[in-house]
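Re: your question from the hallway

Yes, I did run it. Sequences:
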Amino acid sequence: MKIPLHQKQHVYRPNKSWIARLHLDPWLLLGVIALLAVSTIVVYSASDGNPHIIQNHLIRITLALILMIIFAQIPPHFMSMVTPWLFFIGILMLVTVLLFGHIGKGAQRWLDFGVIKFQPSELMKLVLPMMVAWLYAYETFPPSTKKLLQGGGMIALTAGLIVVEPDLGTSLLIAMSGLFVIYFAGLPWKIILGTIATTILSAPIAWHFMYDYQKQRVLTFLNPESDPLGKGYHIIQSKIAIGSGGLEGKGFMGSTQAHLDFLPESTTDFIFSVYAEEFGLIGVGLLLLLYTFVIGRGLYIASRAQDNFTRLVAASLTMTLFVYIFVNIGMVSGLLPVVGLPLPLISYGGSAMVTLMISFGILMSIHTHKKMLAK
Amino acid sequence: MLSPQHFLDEQENSKQKYLFKQRLWIAFIFVLLCFAIILGRMIYLQILSFNHYHSMAEGNRISFTVIPPTRGKIYDRNHTLLADNQPTYILKFTRERHMDIDALVKQLQTLLPSISEKKMAKFAQNMRHTNTFNQTLSPFYLTEKQAAVIAVNTHKLPGITLAARLKRYYPFGSTAVHAIGYVSRINMDELKTLDPEIYRGTDSIGKSGIEKFYETQLHGKPGLQYIETNAKGRVLRKLSAVPPVPGQDIQLTIDIRLQKYAESLLAGKKGAIVAMNPTNGEILAYVSQPTYDPNLFVDGISQINYNRLLHNKQKPFINRAINGQYPPGSTVKPFVALGALERGLTTAQKKIYDPGYLEFAGHRYRDWKRRGHGLVDLDTAITQSCDTYFYDLALKMGIDTLHDILYPFGFGHKTGIDLPKEASGILPSQAWKKATKGKPWYRGETVIAAIGQGYMLATPLQLAKATSILANHGQIVRPHLNIQPPPLTEESDTPQQIPIKDIHNWNTVIKAMTHVLHSVHGTAHKYAHHLPFTMAGKTGTAQVFSLKDAEYDANNIKKSLRDHSLFIGFAPVKKPQIAVSVIVENSSLKAAPLGIKVAKYYLQHCTDTPFLHKTTLNSIP
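Structure:
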């Protein structure tokens, strides 16, 4: 690291490691693999050693790793090139979902192609920030008001199409990934603080337009004990799991809350509670360190990126990862309302893991392709 | 890796890049801040609230089921089982999340076609009102066959398990039901007052008789079985147990043979027979007819059966021995006579002339014998039950003296028997009339009070108690059904012996009562032929319907208006072992032979030394 980067770029190094050849970032890879290892352990415990679930989980991890590697090979300028098309397709699919989508759990989120079911909102998690970044790629920071409005419009359109599915949580998170791009592009603080203030003030109006189940979630969040067997059940049981873990935890496979079925969705949304119950505050601290490391590496990659598009995409994807972590842990520990959201890289589950690993692939691609750009 | 210095090294002289890196730093600090919040939350949950959540997790994990105690059995004095517990089956329903109760009920109906629709509907309603993870029991028991059907089909019945229960069973059925009582389902009112800790897991409770009076002893205390359960309430393993404390068995003073015999004597009639050991108050037979089958109540009696019993004109629910309040009639005469002797109001030798009536204040108080008994002394007055003699005595003593004479024998207040809801009878006095009727006492009312008519009311048990005290020469006994009666409480201050002025007065009255049975003029003489022991007694007739001066003709009036026939007695006279009181309501059947038969049966079949010979007849002149 002592050698200035621009010099390093001009040195031809025929003995590149296999990691470099595969366009992988060793530090990010290390963090991701460490998290996936933790994930496998917790999923094993939370599923009570169900071999079917473990097998599925390992297959998904393998597939996701392969996808990550594949995306790491795609040069960022190519991504930039196809972004508008992907965005157009994404919007088209969201409209299609609204019109013909498969209804699952009361919301139309899936597109059924016969062979595979596909969730267009999952695609938009990646494509929307890329699209907004594409918009600002050749702008000087901060962008003009016109461009800011254009970006805001894209975010509003995407979020709007998802919120009517209805999926408020995903919609807010996807909007967030777009808004991060605007933030990193240098949105004036006046506007940021003004928007936050407006949002808080307009909360009562938003309440008016919410669906009943969303209102219930908010109410339950505010006072889960009011309905211990109904709406508040999940949160209460989750807090019991976390709290009873104590400093050192009950040990691997020691989660009574999960093993005795008191904890709902213990392998997916509430997997953090199982982790916290079994590994205690020490385990939680280590996990947060691991996450901080991965996020720090992501932001570092953004800081080293060579053009605006890659800068914005890297920073936004990293911060989106952070938001997922924060919202999930905040939810299961009773800080935030219940949103059906997995814990990144730890929860058992397909599409979220795939999207996440692709975003790591993109980050790695950004970090490892800049030399080629510099030539 | 991300030191500020590093960023500064890398900083290009581009304002744009500087702005971006500034934003990155702010974002990273924001991330650290948020993670610090999460860590703070975790410290709050896992360290500061650890004890709270730890106990909640344990509470989740560990639950307990109640092991109901085995109810104490009830035996008669010879250890014959009167109330037993029999194993039976009951359905236990555990509510889980998302259950189709309608489908479950339909399934149960097809499997158990013999369970009435009403009971099944009740069960379904209970199931719906059960909270998640809680349990409810079926309001019906299953036979072994039905239980087998359920056991085979458990996979079709989510949430339903079979539980073994002990069910009360009364092998003698309707015999002695008014003494033993019965258990039945706990009702809503009882639920409010019961200690939930003790009655957890129990669905029935003593409703009457001994079963009610000794409920606490019979019931026992439930035990607990700690178990690890999952969120669905399924038992994963048993942890530890606190064994239940079984209810205590109770041995009654009743002799079931005598009981059955005495009940058979009153079969088809209305009335009561109380037989007790005069020396210690042990009730030997406790008959109230008609009776009913207590086994009907154990499962919860059907409405039809209940109404049939409730609206039965014979009123089988009335516990006549303690709640039937009757005018004692002539049976009070020995006590009145004794009181008069002890107070010096008369002597055994003093005679009065009985013309067949006593005229007082322009009214003729008739004797039962229209032409009168002629010259009558105390012995004749009791032996032949001369009313006029007692009318005369009554006017001499007045109502308050009469009250004071009869009160120590137990009239007008509860005997203190170990049964719930005993009636106290009525023993009139001037004060009593003032308090209850708000009117002054008329001396004419005193006249009929001396022959046990008018306001005076007594229960068959009170009569048996009074007879016992007389037989004991004044030693007061408390009747009881439990062979080990509970210790006295408020009554402990009352005297245990009526003060005796002259023992000859007592013997005079007892001898007169002996003549009732053994003298040719005695009112019960015709029933006492060939009695192998001497017995003292007194017959009585209680007028339920005032016939004024008209001639009494038993065959001409409606059966329900016929007088009650009464009898009190004890035997053997020298060393009393049994005292009886008998009341036959509105019937031509006489009470005296029943009382004599009960005493004879008891002395011949139920005692250690049967009395087969006339041992004391030589004392009769």
